[in-house]
Amino acid sequence: MRPAGSTEPAGADVELDASDVTALAVRTEGLTKRFRSGQLAVDGIGLRVPRGSVYGFLGPNGSGKTTTIRMLLGLVRPTSGVAWLLGEPMPDGAGHVLPRVGALVEGPAFHPYLGGRANLARLDASDATADPRTARRRSDEALERVGLTAAASKPYRQYSLGMKQRLGLAAALLRPRELLVLDEPTNGLDPQGTREVRLLIRELADAGTTVLVSSHLLTEIEQVCTHLGIMGRGKLLVQGERQVLTERGVARVTVTTAGEQVGAAAEVLTGLGLAEVLADGVTLHALLGATAPEEVSAAIVNAGLDLVGLQVRRPSLEELFVELTGEGFDVAR
Ligand SMILES: Nc1ncnc2c1ncn2[C@@H]1O[C@H](COP(=O)(O)OP(=O)(O)OP(=O)(O)O)[C@@H](O)[C@H]1O
């Protein structure tokens, strides 16, 4: 894993090699958006979303997630950089690739006076590749999947935010898709609704769909993700397998000695190459780095000091993100 989006060249001359086409559902190089206002919303990012993954696209509010997703889907033109969806360049390949991609982005165009089912039927009818004979079944199944069957006839304008969000999801699920791009799908949902979205994502992923899902709430989607990408102020700060990221946090060690030995123990830790050695009463804190905890205890004992306690702690994913983004994540409920 490497800090993403920083080392590879940007620009339209980047070729997509054959292995990327089969291995990656989404790839970008140097993808950048500067709005006319001057705002640099997305700053040269290099996304790698492996096929078959559930990729959690995380970051605080305003970090550039929605703008990135809109560029991926051809809704916003990048200022520079390139993007491929399922191996097709965007936006040039949009006609080819978008029928294979389901998307939930802000403000889908639903008719306010029509119910959920009628809205889905309209969307379905606008899809030239959909068989009209099975239209009703597709709408009903999509409504069922998102738990909107009971509200199928209720006018859209009477839907709660959560119901609107569910209908947006249903629209993305009208057809089987190779890739689903969901921008903040849990927005406006209660805890039960959020759990249902997680379950749905897992089901879809189990059936082979790649899912790119954004959220500013780490804990809401983290558990279903196989991969994570963390945005902060327009940059992709880090991306990779969730498991690897979880283990990436820099471990800290806490060493407790007899009170009068703290100074000597601090020298031992510094001598071992540990950084940020700080004393707090009889306890020392330091970054463990590549040193094994056993080396620390052996060095203390070999220096003739009394080791009263030694603890190693790795920061949680949440602490790592706060460290990377410099901003607190909202903790879900
Ligand atoms: N059309 C626009 N014109 C100018 N600036 C914009 C526009 N759209 C977004 N921005 C700005 O770009 C930055 C990134 O916004 P974006 O919506 O992509 O972030 P986000 O990570 O999706 O945030 P959130 O979690 O709140 O949806 C923000 O500072 C935002 O104000």
From TrEMBL:
Residues 26-258 form the ABC transporter domain. Signal peptide: none annotated. The keyword Kinase does not apply. InterPro entries: AAA+_ATPase (IPR003593), ABC_transporter-like_ATP-bd (IPR003439), ABC_transporter-like_CS (IPR017871), P-loop_NTPase (IPR027417). One of its GO terms (molecular function) is ATP hydrolysis activity. PROSITE patterns: ABC_TRANSPORTER_1 (PS00211), ABC_TRANSPORTER_2 (PS50893). Pfam families: ABC_tran (PF00005). It comes from the Bacteria. Keywords: ATP-binding, Nucleotide-binding, Transport. SMART domains: AAA. The keyword Transport applies. Belongs to the ABC transporter superfamily. This is ABC transporter ATP-binding protein. It comes from Pengzhenrongella frigida.
